[in-house]
Amino acid sequence: MKKVGLVMGSKSDLPTVEKAVEQLKAFGVPVTVRVLSAHRCPDEARAFAAAAREEGFGVLIAAAGMAAHLAGALAANTTLPVIGIPLRAAGSDGTDALLSTVMMPSGIPVATVAIDGAKNAALLAVEILAVSDEALAEKLAAFRAEDTAKTLAADREISAKYN
Ligand code: RP5
Predict the structure, then answer these.
(1) Which amino acid residue places its CA nearest to atom 14 of ligand 1?
(2) In sequence order, which residues have a C-beta less than 8 Å from that of residue 22 and are 6 or more positions away?
(3) Is pTM beyond 0.90 here?
């Protein structure tokens, strides 16, 4: 199976990014986790993205806060799909990172999830890999069915209490 490369701009991003790592591991998807900043170590970030396809990655996820150029900088150096997670950061509600991540110029796409949307980033990465992996697609279907069952159980509980 292709690997997911999960890159964060700073170690301070880890508490949010860990949710994506956990979700990928729950699906049995191999993940490599790195700290690579578009601003503080641009050469290393570029090299990681440029070598990613050859090294067996199928999708990259980039999480960054503030002037969040990481996802775009990785996307500029690979034709693998790149998913951006804009993050809240100290003194920022995340809207700066959201716009920095989502507003890519034409030709270099970044699939951007919600602010702090680490779980959805992982699920989107799994969906991309599942396009060519039937076993993974079956796991996704089971995950959705479980989610539906939980919501309907909550509906029964709330309906019994209030209706
Ligand atoms: C971004 O700046 C990082 O992704 C992080 O969200 C933010 C702050 O980084 P630190 O100053 O905490 O290292 O590049």
Answers:
(1) 9
(2) none
(3) yes
CA dihedral 64, 83, 105, 75 (to 10 degrees): 90
Question: Angle at Cα 44 formed by Cα 70 and Cα 87, nearest 5°?
Answer: 25
Class of domain 3-132: alpha beta
Residue 65 Cα to ligand 1 middle (Å): 6
Nearest to 105 by CA among 81, 80, 78, 69: 69
Which regions of 25-88 does DSSP assign to beta strands (E)? 31-35, 57-65, 82-87
Q: Does any ligand 1 atom lie closer than 6 A to the CB of residue 94? A: no
Strands (E), the chain: 3-8, 31-35, 57-65, 82-87, 111-112
**What number does the ligand 1 atom closest to the CA of 63 have?**
4
Q: What pLDDT digit, counting tens, does each position of 33-88 carry?
A: 999 999 999 999 999 999 999 999 999 999 999 999 999 999 999 999 999 999 99
Cα distance between residue 1 and residue 28, in whole Å: 10
* Domain boundary assignment for the chain: 3-132, 135-163
Any atom of ligand 1 within 6 Å of the Cβ of 92: no
Distance CA 86, CA 66 (A): 8
